[in-house]
Amino acid sequence: MPKPLFAPSVLTVDFARLGEAIREAEEAGVDWIHLDVMDGRFVPNLTFGPLVVEAVRRVTSLPLDVHLMIVEPERYLKDFAMAGADWITIHVEATYHPHRGVQQVRELGKKAGLAVNPGTPLEAFEPLLPELDLALLMSVNPGFGGQRYIPSSTARLKALKEMRDRLNPACLVEVDGGVNEKTLPLVLQGGADVVVAGSALFNERPVAENLKRLKEVVHAFGRG
Ligand code: DX5
Ligand code: ZN
User: Fold this and answer.
1) At residue 1, does pLDDT exceed 90?
2) For position 119, which CATH number holds?
3) Contact 56, 31 (CB under 8 A)
4) pTM exceeds 0.85 for this model
5) Ligand 2 mean position to 65 CA, how many Å?
6) Domain interval for residue 209
7) Total count of domains within the chain
8) CA distance 153 to 150
């Protein structure tokens, strides 16, 4: 199995120095930048919109993985595409028409992702998997960085990976929430292709050191 990609979530960085933090992560060797968009309705928290995505686009050439935790995401897909998102993920719980949303992302020429909350049955992926570039499994309830990994996520991840292998092997499986040195082995066991990490990468230590620690776990697991 190939090495997992690391997609740092910038949610826990000091937003006054967002550009610097992203450059630091890029220099450290991360693969993507994960941007958490929250609307205060789908999740209790509020973050940022397309303007910030556009600003981030100017400071990095890494793929931008935009995770939309907003209701009726279809209203903003074009704005995020224009802002420079490469991957756009919507939540299945956030719209009456996830299939239409996914199609719209593809029509905009972007990679389409679908996310599910920890309480949503994985069957939600089934009809849409053939259309997806990315399937995102939340391993915390979305809304905040720094939460604890929900243990049942590992079994869900395995089941999702099996579904992916059966229905659309080209689709990447991403895990988001509570991933750190201790929980990374669980996520690797589950077979994640893309690992989101926020507080484990952006904390008091340099990103390079944190990434090195995570990559050592990957190596010890035999996937890198
Ligand atoms: C949660 C977000 C995550 C989160 C990751 O709502 O989607 O991307 O910020 O942060 P950690 O790794 O700290 O759980
Ligand atoms: Zn996220």
Assistant:
1) no
2) 3.20.20.70
3) no
4) yes
5) 9
6) 5-221
7) 1
8) 6
Band (pLDDT 50/70/90 cuts) for residue 119 is very high
Residues having CB closer than 6 A to ligand 1 are 9, 11-12, 34, 36, 67, 140, 142-147, 176-179, 196-200
Q: Which residues contact 208 (CB under 8 A, 6 or more apart)?
A: 24, 27, 28, 29
Could you tell me which residues come within 8 angstroms of residue 176 by beta carbon, excluding any fewer than 6 positions away? 9, 34, 67, 115, 136, 137, 138, 139, 140, 142, 196
* 62-74 pLDDT tens trace: 999 999 999 999 9
Distance, CA of 130 to CA of 108 (rounded, Å) = 18
**pLDDT tens, position by position, 168-199:** 999 999 999 999 999 999 999 999 999 999 99
Expressed in angstroms and rounded, the spacing between residue 146 Cα and the centre of ligand 1 is 7
Q: pLDDT at position 214, please? A: 98
Is the distance from CB of 101 to CB of 74 less than 8 angstroms? yes
8 A C-beta contact, residue 9 and residue 145: yes
**Cα(137)–Cα(42) distance, rounded to whole angstroms?**
16
> From CA 157, how far away is CA 163, in angstroms rounded?
10
From the CA of 9, give the closest atom in ligand 1: 8
- Is 39 designated active site? no
pLDDT at 146: 97
d(CA 73, CA 53): 15
pLDDT digits (tens, 9 = 90+) for 30-43: 999 999 999 999 99
- Is 133 catalytic? The answer is no
Helix (H, G, I), strand (E, B) or coil at 143: coil
